[in-house]
UniProtKB/TrEMBL annotation:
<dbReference type="InterPro" id="IPR002053">
    <property type="entry name" value="Glyco_hydro_25"/>
</dbReference>
<dbReference type="InterPro" id="IPR018077">
    <property type="entry name" value="Glyco_hydro_fam25_subgr"/>
</dbReference>
<dbReference type="InterPro" id="IPR017853">
    <property type="entry name" value="GH"/>
</dbReference>
<keyword id="KW-0378">Hydrolase</keyword>
<dbReference type="GO" id="GO:0016052">
    <property type="term" value="P:carbohydrate catabolic process"/>
</dbReference>
<dbReference type="Pfam" id="PF01183">
    <property type="entry name" value="Glyco_hydro_25"/>
</dbReference>
<dbReference type="GO" id="GO:0009253">
    <property type="term" value="P:peptidoglycan catabolic process"/>
</dbReference>
<dbReference type="GO" id="GO:0003796">
    <property type="term" value="F:lysozyme activity"/>
</dbReference>
<keyword id="KW-0326">Glycosidase</keyword>
<dbReference type="GO" id="GO:0016998">
    <property type="term" value="P:cell wall macromolecule catabolic process"/>
</dbReference>
<protein>
    <submittedName>
        <fullName>Glycoside hydrolase</fullName>
    </submittedName>
</protein>
<comment type="similarity">
    <text>Belongs to the glycosyl hydrolase 25 family.</text>
</comment>
């Protein structure tokens, strides 16, 4: 148990180290990244979705729906409906725990998230922070993620979105892409652009975890869509000036 705790602590420390740099950071502009959005959970409390919809940096919202085999976000159903009513493109994410079979987790998601054609593909959150005390091997992780999507059986349209940071990508995904379902990459890279060749290698960039927006009390995660990403283009009609 002591060794497992040490391994987990090192993994979490490495994960966080990839997120921060000392150099000044300027958030991506709307000119460079015209489609930006947020990701939220019950931690943001009651949200004024109409206020959010009036802000150019909130074209989409990816919201926590489920975690593990039985947890449901207490505000998901409310946020899902309210975001649609406000005209904001929605997505749902599942926090994938390393200590529960993938099929159990998929059934939890299916019971919580409606299938709707105007939503982003399902996202799964893959990270050590906030997870259980297990550091899976590549075989274990790929097997359980495959089981997760086998259980979903194509219920949700589009290939899934994998949320992770650079360290997790390099530890598990890089060079092993064939062992995982085909997916979009949603990269967490706080205070620096993702370390990829260009944004053609990723689809969504989470660039801040301390954003401030009208309609949300407290901080919120901020994201930008890769301008060359075409997989979601049908969800984002071109905005015209008034």
């Amino acid at each position: 148990m002591v060794l497992a705790a040490v391994i987990l602590a090192v993994a979490v420390a490495s994960y966080l180290a990839y997120d921060r740099v000392m150099a000044p950071f300027v958030s991506p502009t709307l000119a460079d990244y015209p489609i930006q959005g947020i990701d939220i959970s019950h931690h943001q409390g009651a949200i004024d979705w109409q206020a959010l919809s009036r802000q150019a940096k909130v074209r989409f919202a990816i919201m926590k729906a489920t975690e593990g085999g039985d947890h449901r976000d207490t505000r998901f159903a409310e946020n899902w409906k309210a975001a649609k009513d406000a005209g904001i493109v929605r997505g749902a994410y599942h926090f994938f725990t390393f200590c529960r079979p993938g099929r159990d987790q998929a059934r939890n998601l299916i019971e919580a998230v409606p299938v709707e054609p105007d939503a982003l593909p399902i996202a799964i959150d893959l990270e050590f922070t906030g997870n259980c005390g297990k550091v899976p091997t590549l075989d274990e992780l790929s097997t359980e993620i495959k089981a997760f999507f086998d259980e979903l059986n194509g219920a949700y349209p589009g290939k899934p979105i994998f949320y992770l940071n650079q360290q997790f990508f390099e530890q598990y995904i890089k060079g092993n892409e064939a062992r995982f379902p085909d997916h979009y990459l949603w990269l967490r890279s706080i205070a620096q652009e993702p370390r990829q060749n260009d944004c053609g290698d990723w689809s969504i960039w989470q660039f801040a975890d301390n954003g401030r927006l009208d309609g949300i009390q407290g901080s919120v995660d901020l994201n930008a869509l890769c301008p060359s990403e075409t997989g979601f283009a049908h969800l984002f009609p071109v905005l015209t000036a008034n």
